[in-house]
Amino acid sequence: MLKAARLFGTNGIRAVAGDILNADFAYRIGSSVASLFEAKRILVGCDGRTSSPMLTEGVVAGILAQGSDVEDCGQITTPGLQFLVKVAGDAAGVMITASHNPPEYNGFKVVDSDGVEIARGKEETIEGLFPRKSWRVSKNPGRRTHRPQPLEPYLSSLSSYLSRRRIGKPVTVVVDTGNGVAALTTPLLLRRIGCRVITINDNIDGRFPGRTSEPRPENLGPLAAAVKQEKAAFGVAHDGDGDRAIFVDETGAVHSGDKSLTLIEDEVLKKKPGLKVVTPINSSMSVSETARKRKGRVILTPVGSINVARTMMRERAILGGEENGGIFYAPHQPVRDGAMATVLILNSILDNGQPLSRLMARLPTFYMAKEKRNCPDKKKNDVMKEIRRKLGNRVTSTIDGVRVDLKDRGWFLVRASGTEPLVRIYVEGRTEKDLKLLLDEFKPLFDETIGN
């Protein structure tokens, strides 16, 4: 038996494909998942990365060898696969994806029978099974079937949440799928419900030639330009596996994930005041301010979609969201879902009869800066301990990283990335001046401890 190692990070398993992630690794994952979910059918899907077919075959071989059946869903979004697992009721799932990571990466998300990524206890079970030197092969190998049109039930569910099934005047939406698998969902969904849809980067290509897989303001210039040129109501950009969404209003302004979450939260709690909203500790103060206004309750979690999703289920929260553009809407499914986020933003525009820029302008505004520093995985723990030591009794939270709240000024958070060799820094001020002063005060500490 090899020594068990930590495989799972903040969001599943991720590494450079062909290096750590090879066919043997994938076979071990498939075998471990089949052993965890003994006798259950396993749904397998993948994103469009160039290494995904190789890893898919490895995972499927491992599952079949253990005697479990595989339902191969082919290329699919992560929320699409999660929805299929949820409605199946008696199945589990494996999604082969590295989400927003660079093209050389790939990874695995393991989905429990409720459609949500497995909890830490089951991750540990897989990490214990994975290092076996040899695996038994079942005398009765499983059977592999291919699911035709796997996304149809998912798209049908999404369309049922549109406030107005029939859109009187066609709404124009520009969709940048970033060469990812969201090309299979959001454009089709919007066209079905009567929108005029313009797409960019809509060919699935795991090299991500159009832009980086992570939709960030600096790489959404073409989307903003297309929104203005087409006189669109809004634009939306997705990441590689379609679970995130970043929005551009009709003026071409790109809005942060925090801003979109706050708008959706405001609309949801306006109709159902007093309900719970779950968000990680790195989200903007606008989320808690809006919840207070609508008599809602915000619950903070460590960073990571699994933490938000599992907390939502435990607390029976209606909504969850992340600053990176992840929106979790429990009535549909309590996982982050870029297509569902698009429906909710469209609902906001239709319900209010106002342009997106005006809806965003009414929300509380704070000022946030995000930075990152390279930091090898083996040094992360020592770096975080040193930062905490230097900050002493100023630290207000350690549920994920080190956070300091400064009354009437803002806050900052330093945390080690769970998916990349980085330390991430978040600073938010109530005013632009507060933000600048916080950066001036604490950046020397970060640079001195982490390095530039």
Task: Describe what you observe in this structure.
The protein has 452 residues and is of the alpha/beta class. The chain has three domains: 13-150, Alpha-D-Glucose-1,6-Bisphosphate, subunit A, domain 3 (Alpha-D-Glucose-1,6-Bisphosphate, Chain A, domain 3, 3-Layer(aba) Sandwich); 154-361, 3-Layer(aba) Sandwich (Alpha-D-Glucose-1,6-Bisphosphate, Chain A, domain 3); 367-450, TATA-Binding Protein, CATH 3.30.310. The chain contains 14 helices and 20 strands. A hairpin with a 5-residue loop joins strand 19 and strand 20. The two termini are 40 Å apart. The model has no long low-confidence stretch (mean pLDDT 94).
Task: Let me know the average pLDDT.
Answer: 94
Radius of gyration: 22 Å
Q: Helix coverage percent of residues?
A: 25-40%
Largest sheet: 6 strands, mixed
What oligomeric state best describes the polypeptide chains here? single chain
The structural class is alpha/beta
CATH architecture of the largest domain: 3-Layer(aba) Sandwich
Poorly predicted sequence stretches spanning 5 or more consecutive residues:
none
Q: What is the 3D shape?
A: globular
Give the total of beta strands: 20
- N/C terminus separation: 40 Å
* Total number of distinct structural domains: 3
Helix segment tally: 14
